[in-house]
């Protein structure tokens, strides 16, 4: 004899709302009422953010043969750009470099690293995933190995505000967890950038990997081919109409693959950097729901149909 | 008990039966023994000798399991990877071990192994259950001769060929035996073969005369026989063998063969020699792998999976082309484009110089990457959902039968959702629609109708007409009173104060009434059993007979005792003096049993003194009986005929009773003729006996007619009505004759008054005439033509689908016509007609025909559900999309073959309308949900690829990817599949069209 319980008899109470006009209108109105304020707030926050973007890849190379220029190690690649700040920028001001058309998410690229090697001293020889940047010609392991580290970004920026050199703080630009858990404190670069082809920046062999924050930032690969990465922070407010001059050492080759580079100065708010999308999306959906609610309400008032 | 036994021992029943036993087949070719196919040699009572002689026979241990410990892993793995999806995942899993893989190998192989392990576990548990059943069976106890006349209790599995075993009453035979002797001196025993063929009537087996005197345990001490017989085969009804015993060779026939899984009845014990054991037994040879059924949704799902595979291939190809183009562009004239990928020093997978090859490798990678289009856990999730659904079905208290303590039992859970799509129900009648319980409800004696009870057919008809039956309330009240007075007697529902309680004595035709009930008490083959309180119960071959004897008992003519040569009737004094019994002992001279061709049964008895007349009591179908009446015995013919018509109109089974007084000389003549016919060994012995019987069964005097109701099961008409409202067509396939079938059809509201009945039968006079001529070919030809004609006429009658008609049609077809209608060239026409009719009744159909009809209906792409309770329905149940077994009285064979077992027909309503609806919806929604979530996921991966230059980098973490299907998203879907209800059960039942 099967025991009786509401569960076994499938008689548990359940909520089965009937979609009556009242409920539908109320639901739409509620969604609208919730979403519009959220949207307004995020849009407002996003508009508070001051962001300066300056693309310099083309302007910093005076000659037509851009690839030849950048690959020539003897040319002077210093380049100066000047921006005028439109609005007061409150510190900290984040300095980013923005690269476009760089597939950091390419499967070959992403995999070309050895996480173990970055973490453990004893794992320095684990370079099999890193080919062709795994070992040197005489079979010594490269630390850090792989294409990701090899192609480390190597442009540098010197910032002057109204002619005064302003410190760009490069401390704490990487994730804390990365520093503590993914890069070893006792691992020092070796044999890096010693091969036939030099990819990007070199590393100071006396600083452990966990302190090489530029590398750590770079090795957290971007998901999309257009990405910005943190270069440093300016811990000083900049007033409106101040002139910001940045001296760029334009070393990094984005010309071969037709990409672009830009420098970004941005303040932050509670929603992060400048991002209008969230606010607009909320506003759109909220507005749509409100107008649907209104429309249904009108229909409901005008042509009422009674449900038996 | 002891008393019964002593009495039975004196009974030499074989002398009573004239037909059943005379059918000793001697036609089998015994000369074949010893040649190929007939090589088995059995040394009876010397089981160890077989090995010495080099015979290898299997043990009696049976195993119905699919796997053994050793074969489980390889075999079940093989089964698993026969599924397209699983195989695909295996291949892609192996590929992940190569550098082609877009993610790590473990994360790809783990979900697969989880899914495979879970499925294997399920298989294992199911097989374990089968194993348990086998163990139970193998460990049953039976007594085996262990030398010196002592019988020892032994487990079934230890029984060996040649053992002599003793089987006691109501036990199953452990192996195929040769009957040596029974407690009856003539070596007769009764066997119930319900598990084999579904027939409930008892069959009589008889030992060879030479062995039937082995009555005591001790007789077997020095018994030595050699049995030579055919090799194991699946034919239940044939057996050829010889027995060498005491220097003589005796032929053995199926008459001596007791089959495993049949049951000893009405016999205290038998001795038998084991000849086939274990898987050699005929019943095991008959066991076929039940066809595995797949639901339509599952088949459709396969198509969807193929579709997804194609789309997967499509997008993978697209990605590869782009990948190839971009990879090639990385290196132009030795100049590195995307220098950070080092295209100058690359592996084959990214080599711009070998871009086409890289592109092809990428295709493989992409196939692995996009395998999220294919839900790996779909099968296992569906299986889990179905099992849980089945649990809910099993738990449903509204489908629990208190009487038999049987809940619904969904045996194969993978057909749940089919329940929601059933279009046609094919139903057995006996035991399914009806209880197979006969109630003596009315009778017509000497032209007067007795019995006021209202039959269910009458109720149904009254209900339909909307006229309240005048005396229904009265009858109801009467019934209540009746219940208060005395508990309802099973099989008896005759209510008439005129003849009850001995009042018949005041009726004008009291002599006829007395003869009528005496006939009922005498003319049968039942065996009485008297218990301590002097109450008599009966063992009967068929429920009809039991109903007659019980009716006679209730009216004061108690059949009390049967001996070999006499029948004792205990008559209550009609003058209310209950204590005063009068015993009348009739000397039993001959029994001319019932057979389907004779359609009547007679006994010849000698009345006790002082009358001392020799009487022939006869009962039979009206068609044969009325022609056999004497001119002066037709006094009440008109009235009786009218009553019979009335009875059969109200759905009752009728029999006509008549008797005849024989004078000594006449009987002597007959007895002589009969005896010579019986002992003559010639081929036409049967005919001679029939002739002899025919000669005496004449000039009968009509007494009256009986009406027995085949009780409908509870709630059947209502259930059928509701199912019909839900748009389900119901076909009844029955072995009954047409009239009965139509009656039952009316009773259970299958047929309604307004319906046009299209009857297809082969009873046209010209065909009957042809049949008499006996030319088989021309009969077949004419019959077929006639059936064709009738079907075409029927089609013409039914308006084509376009026209709307309020008139509904019912098709009734008999077994003989069905044979022709099922022939290849006619069957689609027949189907055409049948599909247009609201209900279809096939009468006189054999089990094979039932299965054939089911197969035919399946041709129309409709989901069919077959429901039945007996072994004769097994074919039908297995053939149908869903087989529903009634776990009622008639054995377990149907239940074993069924997909779902229910206790009563009426539960079908809830099963189909509520659970069917739910399960169908749940599974469909769940499968859609499943594909939705996987396609969504797959598409995000694909879109991301576009941003990663189609390099095959997944957007998600490896483990997230692999656990997405197996863990993260499976529970909500399963919950939906198990619990979702779009409408409550109450609404499902109220609005049947939801089905």
From TrEMBL, chain A:
Pfam families: CDC50
Keyword Transmembrane helix: yes
Transmembrane feature ranges: 23-45, 280-302
GO terms under cellular component: endoplasmic reticulum; Golgi apparatus; plasma membrane
Tree of life domain: Eukaryota
Keywords: Membrane, Transmembrane, Transmembrane helix
Subcellular localization, as worded in the UniProt entry: Membrane
The family this protein is said to belong to: Belongs to the CDC50/LEM3 family.
Record protein name field: ALA-interacting subunit
From TrEMBL, chain B:
Domain P-type ATPase N-terminal: 42-108
Chain ranges of the P-type ATPase C-terminal domain: 895-994
Active site: residue positions: 428 (4-aspartylphosphate intermediate)
EC number: 7.6.2.1
Membrane topology classification: Multi-pass membrane protein
Family matches, as Pfam families: Cation_ATPase, PhoLip_ATPase_C, PhoLip_ATPase_N
Catalytic activity entry: ATP + H2O + phospholipidSide 1 = ADP + phosphate + phospholipidSide 2
Listed GO MF terms: ATP binding; ATP hydrolysis activity; ATPase-coupled intramembrane lipid transporter activity; magnesium ion binding
Residues the record lists as binding ATP: 428-430, 545, 594, 619, 653, 734-736, 844, 850, 872-873
Name the record gives this protein: Phospholipid-transporting ATPase
Organism, as annotated: Aegilops tauschii subsp. strangulata
């Amino acid at each position: 004899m099967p025991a009786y319980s509401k569960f076994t008899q499938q008689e548990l109470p359940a909520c089965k709302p009937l979609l009556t006009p009242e409920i539908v209108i109320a639901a739409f109105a509620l969604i609208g009422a919730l979403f519009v304020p959220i949207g307004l707030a995020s849009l407002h926050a996003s508009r508070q953010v001051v962001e300066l973007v300056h693309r310099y890849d083309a302007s910093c190379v005076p000659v037509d043969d851009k690839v030849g220029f950048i690959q020539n190690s003897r040319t002077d690649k210093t380049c100066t750009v000047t921006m005028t700040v439109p609005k007061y920028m409150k510190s900290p001001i984040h300095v980013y470099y923005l690269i476009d058309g760089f597939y950091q998410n390419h499967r070959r690229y992403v995999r070309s690293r050895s996480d173990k090697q970055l973490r453990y001293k004893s794992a320095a020889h684990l370079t099999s995933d890193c080919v062709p940047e795994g070992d040197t010609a005489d079979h010594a392991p490269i630390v850090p190995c792989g294409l990701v580290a090899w192609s480390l970004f190597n442009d540098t920026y010197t910032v002057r505000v109204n002619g005064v050199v302003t410190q760009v703080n490069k401390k704490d630009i990487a994730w804390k967890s990365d520093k503590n858990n993914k890069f070893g404190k006792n691992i020092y670069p070796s044999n890096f950038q010693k091969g036939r082809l030099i990819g990007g920046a070199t590393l100071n062999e006396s600083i452990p990997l966990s302190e090489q924050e530029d590398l750590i930032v770079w090795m957290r690969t971007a998901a999309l081919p257009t990405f910005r990465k943190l270069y440093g922070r300016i811990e000083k407010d900049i007033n409106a109409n101040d002139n910001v001059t940045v001296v760029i050492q334009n070393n990094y080759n984005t010309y071969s693959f037709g990409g672009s580079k830009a420098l970004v100065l941005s303040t932050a708010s509670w929603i992060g950097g400048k991002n209008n999308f969230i606010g607009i999306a909320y506003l759109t959906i909220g507005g749509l729901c409100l107008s649907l609610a209104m429309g249904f309400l009108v229909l409901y008032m005008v042509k009422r149909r009674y449900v038996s | 008990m002891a008393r019964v036994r002593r009495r039975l021992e004196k009974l030499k029943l074989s002398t009573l039966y004239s037909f059943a036993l005379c059918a000793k087949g001697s036609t089998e070719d015994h000369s074949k023994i010893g040649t190929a196919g007939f090589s088995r040699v059995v040394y009876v009572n010397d089981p160890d000798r077989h090995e010495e002689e080099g015979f290898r026979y299997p043990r009696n241990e049976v195993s119905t399991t699919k796997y053994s410990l050793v074969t489980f892993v390889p075999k079940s793995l093989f089964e698993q990877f026969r599924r397209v999806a699983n195989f695909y995942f295996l291949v892609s899993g192996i590929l992940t071990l190569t550098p082609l893989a877009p993610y790590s190998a473990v994360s790809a192989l783990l979900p697969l192994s989880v899914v495979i392990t879970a499925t294997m576990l399920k298989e294992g548990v199911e097989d374990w259950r089968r194993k348990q059943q086998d163990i139970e069976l193998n460990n049953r106890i039976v007594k085996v001769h262990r030398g010196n006349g002592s019988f020892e209790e032994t487990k079934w599995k230890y029984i060996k060929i040649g053992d002599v075993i003793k089987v006691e009453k109501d036990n199953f035979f452990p192996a195929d035996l040769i009957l040596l002797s029974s407690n009856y001196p003539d070596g007769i025993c009764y066997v119930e073969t319900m598990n084999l063929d579904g027939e409930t009537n008892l069959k009589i087996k008889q030992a060879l005369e030479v062995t039937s005197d082995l009555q005591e345990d001790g007789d077997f001490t020095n018994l030595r026989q050699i049995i030579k017989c055919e090799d194991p085969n699946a034919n239940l009804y044939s057996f050829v063998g010889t027995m060498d015993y005491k220097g003589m060779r005796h032929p053995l026939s199926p008459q001596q063969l007791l089959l495993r899984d049949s049951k000893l009845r009405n016999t205290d014990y038998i001795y038998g020699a084991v000849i086939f054991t274990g898987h050699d037994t005929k019943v095991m040879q008959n066991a076929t792998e039940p066809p595995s059924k797949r639901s339509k949704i599952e088949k459709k799902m396969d198509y969807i999976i193929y579709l997804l595979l194609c789309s997967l291939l499509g997008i993978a190809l697209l990605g590869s082309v782009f990948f190839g183009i971009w990879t090639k562009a990385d290196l132009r004239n030795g100049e590195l484009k995307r220098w950070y990928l080092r295209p100058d020093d690359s592996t084959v997978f990214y080599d711009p110089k070998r871009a086409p090859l890289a592109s092809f490798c990428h295709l493989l990678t992409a196939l692995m990457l996009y395998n999220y289009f294919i839900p790996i856990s779909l099968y296992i999730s569906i299986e889990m959902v179905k099992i849980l659904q089945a649990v809910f079905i099993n738990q449903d208290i509204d489908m629990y039968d208190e009487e038999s303590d049987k809940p619904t039992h969904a045996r194969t859970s993978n057909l749940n959702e089919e329940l929601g799509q059933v279009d046609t129900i094919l139903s057995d009648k006996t035991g399914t629609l009806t209880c197979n319980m006969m109630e003596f409800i009315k009778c017509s004696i000497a032209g007067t109708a007795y019995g006021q009870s209202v039959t269910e057919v009458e109720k149904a008809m009254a209900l339909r007409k909307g006229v309240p039956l005048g005396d229904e309330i009265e009858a109801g009240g009467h019934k209540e009173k009746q219940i208060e007075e005395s508990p309802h007697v099973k099989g008896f529902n005759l209510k008439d104060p005129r003849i009850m309680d001995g009042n018949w004595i005041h009726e004008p035709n009291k002599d006829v009434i007395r003869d009528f009930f005496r006939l009922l008490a005498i003319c049968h083959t039942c065996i009485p059993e008297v218990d301590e309180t002097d109450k008599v119960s009966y063992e009967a071959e068929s429920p009809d007979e039991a109903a007659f004897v019980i009716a006679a008992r209730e009216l004061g003519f108690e059949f009390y005792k049967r001996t070999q040569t006499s029948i004792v009737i205990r008559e209550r004094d009609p003058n209310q003096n209950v204590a005063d019994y009068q015993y009348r002992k009739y000397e039993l001279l001959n029994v001319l049993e019932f057979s389907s061709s004779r359609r009547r049964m007679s006994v010849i008895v000698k009345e006790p003194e002082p009358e001392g007349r020799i009487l022939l009591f006869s009962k039979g179908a009206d068609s044969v009986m009325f022609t056999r009446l004497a001119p002066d015995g037709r006094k009440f013919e008109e009235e009786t005929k009218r009553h019979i018509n009335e009875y059969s109109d109200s759905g009752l089974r009728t029999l006509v009773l008549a008797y005849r007084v024989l004078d000594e000389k006449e009987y002597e003549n007959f007895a002589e003729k009969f005896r010579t016919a019986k002992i003559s060994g010639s081929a036409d012995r049967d005919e001679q006996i029939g002739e002899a019987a025919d000669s005496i069964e004449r000039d009968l005097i009509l007494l009256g007619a009986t009406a027995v109701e085949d009780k409908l099961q509870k709630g059947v008409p209502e259930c059928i009505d509701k199912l019909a409202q839900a748009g389900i067509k119901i076909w009844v396939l029955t072995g009954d004759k047409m009239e009965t079938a139509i009656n039952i059809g009316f009773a259970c509201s299958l047929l309604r008054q307004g319906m046009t009945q299209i009857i297809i039968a082969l009873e046209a006079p010209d065909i009957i005439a042809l049949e008499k001529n006996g030319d088989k070919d021309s009969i077949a030809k004419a019959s077929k033509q006639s059936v064709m004609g009738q079907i075409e006429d029927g089609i013409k009658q039914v308006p084509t689908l376009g026209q709307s008609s309020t008139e509904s049609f019912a098709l009734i077809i008999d077994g003989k016509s069905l044979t022709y209608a099922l022939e290849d060239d006619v069957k689609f026409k027949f189907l055409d007609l049948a599909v247009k009719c609201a209900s279809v009744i096939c009468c006189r159909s054999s089990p094979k025909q039932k299965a054939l009809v089911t197969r035919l209906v399946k041709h129309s792409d409709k989901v069919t559900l077959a429901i039945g309770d007996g072994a004769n329905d097994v074919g039908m149940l297995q053939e149908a999309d869903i087989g529903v077994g009634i776990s009622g009285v008639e054995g377990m064979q149907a239940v074993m073959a069924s997909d779902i077992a229910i206790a009563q027909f009426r539960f079908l309503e809830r099963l189909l309308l509520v659970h069917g609806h739910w399960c169908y919806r749940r599974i469909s929604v769940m499968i859609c949900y499943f594909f939705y979530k996987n396609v969504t996921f797959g598409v995000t991966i694909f879109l991301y690829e576009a941003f990663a230059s189609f390099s095959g980098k997944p957007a998600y973490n490896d483990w997230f990817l692999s656990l997405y299907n197996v863990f993260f998203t499976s529970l909500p879907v399963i919950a939906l599949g198990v619990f979702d209800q779009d409408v409550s059960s109450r609404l499902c039942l109220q609005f049947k069209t939801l089905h």
